Known about the structure:
By secondary structure, the chain is an alpha+beta fold. The protein contains 2 helices and 8 strands; from the N terminus they run H-H-E-E-E-E-E-E-E-E. It starts with a helix and ends with a strand.
Amino acid sequence: MINNKDLKNNNGFTLIETIVAITILMISIVGPLALASKGIVYSEYVRDEITAFNLAQEAMETVRNIRDENVKNYSEAEWLKDIDRCLSPKICRLDIWDTNGVRAGLVTALMPMPTDWLKMSTKSIIVPGQSGVTTLYGYLFNTSSVGTLKPSLFTRIITITPISYGVPSIPPKLTDTQGTEVADNGLATPGEVNVTVEIRWRRVPFLPRSIKISENLYSL
């Protein structure tokens, strides 16, 4: 004979207890999965920020290097040679893969940015003596290089603005590397310019992003 006490001890979960248990289980699983998903998305944004900063820094160092070469190979008065093509109101893009060299890679336009200024492409190459694959960015690539071109998210814009403190400057005498005075070639020679590099990209269609770095360069 089965008594009521035995029946009471053998009862299973009620419907409410089951629903509560399932809810707790779902919260404990969905929570970490949602955090992991957001972490993956945020990692893409962080990667874009780091890439954009490196591309901006590359352009800034290139302009600075052209300035140094001008002073070394020409004269202090010609420190803006080829850089001056980017003087405001013009803007430049920098294509280090231009087949005619970095100076020729300073492509000039007027604002607003032309629609034919396509995003920088990427090319993955294997560097001899190094392990792994290196990703390079540029607008024009040497087609003999190893790798496949892929469109990237990034566009690079360089703006150079002369700095004036309201004091009229006396144009310096132009001299060659031996110190011999040469004729003025009409090159504008402010003593200081501001170089601004802007990187634009858009990972989400309705969320454009950009970063800017800025530095003042002097004629040395």
